[in-house]
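Sequence in, structure out.
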Amino acid sequence: MNRTSSPSQSSSGQLLALLTAGFYALFTLMPDSHSLMVVWPWVLIWQVGLLCPVLWGLGISFRARCFPQLGNNLDFGVGVVIASLIVTTIFAELPNPARWYSWASLCFIVALYTLNYWFDHPERRYRCLRWQGYLSLAFIFISLTLWGTQTLFPELDRLEQLEAVGASVRFDLSVLELRNWAPLGHQNYVAGYLVLALPLLAALAILEPGWRRWLWWSGIGLGLMDLYTTSSRGGWLGLLAVLLTALAIALLRSAIPRIWLVLSALGSVLVVLLFIFANNRLRSLLLALFSGEGGGQFAYRLITMTTGWQMGKSDLFTGVGLGNVPWLYQEYLPDWAGYEAQLIYQLHSTPAQLFAELGLWGVLIQLGAVVLFGYLVWRWFATKLDSTDLIIAGSLFCALFGYVVVSLTDYQLDNIAISGTLVIYLAAIASILRQKDFVTLPSAPQLGLAGLGFTVAVLIWLFPIHRGWQVSSQGFSALAQAEPNWEGFVERLTQAHKLVPWEPYYSYQLGWNLGERALTAGNAAQHQDLLAQSVNWFEAGLEASRDREFGYTNLGWLQLKQGNPQEATQSFAQSAQLLPAKRGVFYSLGLSLLAHNQTELAVQAFSLEVLRNPIFMTSPLWTLPGLQPIYPQVMASAIAQCSQLLNSDNLSTELETDLHQIRGSFLWWQGNLAGAKEDLQEYGSPLSQAVLKISTGEAVASVEKTLSPSPAQQLLLAWVQPEQRSQHLQQAWIRARKEMIPEERLEALLTSMTNAETFESWLKQKAPTWQYRRQRLGFGVNMRHLGGATPSDYFQVVENIPIVVWLNSLFPTSAYFPDLDLALQPQRQALLQQVEQR
C-alpha cells in the first residue's frame, strides 16, 4: 500500500481533518445545538461541517489509491445501510425529506471510512481518543455550568421568593423544564452522550498516570453528577448496562481476583442505585412500578412505538421513508392515544424509528448490527492485543452496549455530537481489530471522481433549500422589527416557498401571520383580503404536508371567519379524524355545523367534546347568545351518553368510575343534586363529595376540615375566613401553579368572593374568568425548522378560574385514557361519516 503523498496533499488532508474536528466540537459544545441545527445560518454551517470529511475522504481516494475497508464484515453491513438508503429514498412517501436525511447519513458513512483510514496509525488513533476525552470533559463542564446558571440557580431564587410568603416548594426534577438540557438542547441527548463518554474516560483513567489520571477520574465523578441532573430514565439504564458489561468483560479478561471484581461491581451498582433513589422522578417511577401502578408512565413511548409499527407495516419493504416520520405521524397515530404525544419529530425509540422509516430494511440493519457487535466482541476476545488497545476496545464496547440500551428508549442519530461519537468509536474498533492492509485499487481515482460528481449534484440540489432558509430568515427579521415590515416579510417568505415548495413551514408561517393580522385589521376590505391570503397559504401548507392537524384546525377557523361554515366543517372534520381527542376539535366542528343550521349534528359534536374534556362544560363560552339556547341539549346529550356507556358490557373499573364521576359532575353543575349524589356518593373523589355536601347545605367550614391539605382546601379556607382571604388565596395559587398570583388576578378573586352569597353561586355564577389561545409549543422544533413565530390556535379558550386552577378534579380529565377513547370512537366515526355525506 502506497502512503506517500506530496506536502500540499498532506497539508490539505490535515486542514480538512482539523475542520472536521472543529465543526464536530462546535456542535458538541454549542448551547442548544440540536435546535440551532435548523436555524439559519447554523443549518448551513453544519452542512459545511459534514462536507469536510467527504472532501477529506475523496482526497484519500485520489492520493492513496486504496479502499480503506473496515474489515470484519463491517463493510457488508455498511453496504446494506447504503442499499436501504437508496431504496427507501426512491420509494419514500415524501421523497425530499428522505433525500435530505439520506445525504447526511452518507456523509457520516464517508466520515467513518475516512477516520478508519487515518486510524491505521495507532498513535493517531490514541491521540484522537484522548482528544475525544478532553472534549467530553469540556462537555460535562459546560453542561453543569449552563444548567446551573440558567436553570438551577434561577429556580432556587424563585423558590426562595415563594418561601418568603410561607409556601414550601422543592426543586423538582420531574418538571421537564428543570432537567439538564445543556448543551445539546434536551436531557435525553445529554444522557445519551454521557453514556458514551464515561467508559472512555474510565479507560483513559486506567491507562494514563499522574495528573491526567486524576483529571479523568474527576471527569467521571462530574459526569455522574451531570447524568443525575438529566433525570433521564434511559440514561441510567444505559449506565447500568455499561457497568454490567464491564463486569462481564473483567471477569473474562482481567487478572484481578474475582472477589475484588465482584465487590467493585456491587459497589458501582450501589452507587448508581443511590443516585437513582436520590432523584425524585426516578424514585417515583420505580415505586410506581413496584406497586403495579407505573403503566401510565410509559404511555408516551407506547404511543410512539405503536405509531412507528403502523408506519413500518404500511409498506414493509421501504417504510415511509427516511425523515418522513414528523410529516406523516398524525396519519398513523392510534385512536386510543388521547391527546398525549400528539405531535413529535421522532419516535423516542431507535428500533421503532428505523422500522417506521426503512421498513424491513430497518429490521435487517438492526439485527445485523447485533450480530456484528457480537462478532466483534468475539474477535476482540480471540485477538492478541497490547494492553492499551485491549482496554480501549473494551471500554468502547461497554459504551456502545450502554448506548444500545439508551437507544431503545430514544432516537438520537440525528444529533451530530452523538452520531459523531459513534463514528469515532466504530472507526477505532475497526482499526484495532483489522488484520489486513487496505485494498489497493487502481480505479480509486475514478471512484473518487464519481463520488465528487455525486457530491456536486447534491450540492446543486441543496442550493435552493439553503437559499430558501436564508431569505425566510430575512423575512422573519423584517417582521420582528419595532415597526413590522409586512411587505418584506410576505415577499421573502413567498420567495422561500417558491424555492422550496415541498417545505410547509414557509406556507404555514405566511398563513398564520397573515391570519393574525386579519384578526386585528380595522378595514373590512383589508380584513377579507388578508383572510383570503391566509386561507390560500394554509391550503398550500396542507398540500405540502397533507396530514397536519394544525393546518386543518386553523384553516377551519379562518373559513368560519370568512363566512364559509360548510368549508370550515370539512376542515374541522379532517382535524377530528387525525386527532379526535384534541381539546377544542369537536367544539370547533360543532360551531361550524351550528353556523349552517345543522343543530342536531352540532349537539353531537359538542357532546363528544365535553365527554372527552368534561371541564369544558364549565366554560363561560356556553353563555354566548349563539350557544346558550342549545346548552341544555348538550348537557342532556352528554349525560345520556354517559348512561349509555355505563350500560355497556365489559367496562373496566377505571372507565366505570370515570363515567360515574363525569355524569355526577355534569348533574351537579346542572343543579340536579339528587342525581349527582347517586353517582358521586359511591364513585366521587373526596373533593367532589365535599363540594356536593356544600351544595346541599352543609357549612363550608365543617366540610373543609374533612379534606387533606391541598390547594382546594386552601380555597375553602379563603371562603370561610374572609379576614385572611388574601393569604389563603395566595397559598392556594402557589400550591396549584408553583408561582406567585398576579395582583390583578388576586383582586378579581377577592371582589367576586365578596359579591357572592354562597360558595356554589360564586363558583357557578360569579367566579372570574380568563381567556387565552393555546400556543403550539415546539411547532418549529417538531417541523425541524426554526426562525418564525410560535403559532397559537385562533380558537379563544375561555375558562372559569377557580374551577380550572383548584377544582379541576371535579371534572376528571386525562391526556391518556385509552378505555374512554376507544369507547367514544364509534360515536366519533359515526358523526364524521354523517358530516362527510352532507
